[in-house]
Amino acid sequence: MNGVRCMMMRGGTSKGAYFLAGDLPPSADERDDLLLRVMGTPDPRQIDGIGGAHPLTSKVAVVSRSDGADADVDYLFLQLGVEEATVSDKQNCGNILAGIGPFAVERGLVAAGRERTSVRIRMVNTGGIATATFPTPGGVVDYAGGAAISGVPGTAAPIVLDFGGTEKPREALLPTGNIRDTIDGIEVTCVDNGMPVVVAAASSFGVTGYETSDELAALRDRVQSLRLQAGELMGLGDVSAASVPKTTLVAAPRDGGMICTRTFIPLRVHTSIGVLGAVSVATALLLDGAVGRDLAAFPPQGDPLSVEHPTGRLDVAVELDGTTVRRAGVVRTARKLFDGTVFPRSAA
Ligand code: NQM
Fold this sequence. Notes:
The protein has six helices and 17 strands. The chain is an alpha+beta fold. It has a 17-stranded mixed β-sheet that branches. The protein is globular and about 55 Å long. The chain starts with a strand and ends in a 6-residue tail after the last strand. (1E)-4-oxobut-1-ene-1,2,4-tricarboxylic acid is lined by residues 13-14, 55-56, 93-95, 195, 243, 246, 265, 274-277.
């Protein structure tokens, strides 16, 4: 059986299989079929593949040299289902994004600088550009360093992700056209600053917002009803098989951050929060009238916006000009786990 060249990386608080586009079949249907067999989907344990039996470890990055002047590489993110045989390109992933710059250098798509390297990445799913900057002493990616991120043990080299230069006007930021909508009697703010998210107060679901991920599993059906209707209002159509929108329940911070969050992705509760999910929630709270703004404790101007989640905090920077987003940024880490050949399960 033919194997496929693949690098497995931890990107932020996610883990995924990174491929060069040229190593995968050019037809999207054939590519998706192959990737499902690589991951071991559909199967709750993904026992016959390299997936980790959770949406956060059932992720794929497809990378190629960019032909646009404004980017060095193109990054297509694919979210694979675990129990269901789904492959979705309807969302981006800011965690897997953290591994793209190092991967591009490792594969020779971008020449490394002597101290550090910046890689301009076109995020194919959304059309935006991110710049990743990371240490490359002596022209080699160095994954070791002193940056800690909540949800990952130990420390690693910082990878600075900058989403500058992608202006987002109010219409794009608030895809329903409203700062608030009411769905199933629950007030929500539907926002998209890189990730479509429905923000609701935890109290409107009858919970505190400080529960563990497991304790919130009982809200699954209500969250599903909310997100299906929100998807229509946000112009995403029928989202029953899509991994977006996410739903974030917010509560007052209790750990020195700006806001406390619990996020459904889209139905399992995230062990932390996605990068672009956190950027989107923080952006919403900066807008007058947003659901949850009254719960937020804003830091002094210029300090990061610290989003509390079940395993710590994720600090983001968001720059608004009125209701237009000028830039956003975040620090992540990533690590090469293996580089080699993956052997997919044989086709049925
Ligand atoms: O929001 C999980 C993750 C993500 C997405 C999810 C992400 C992001 O933690 O940018 O990173 O929301 O499905 O990897």
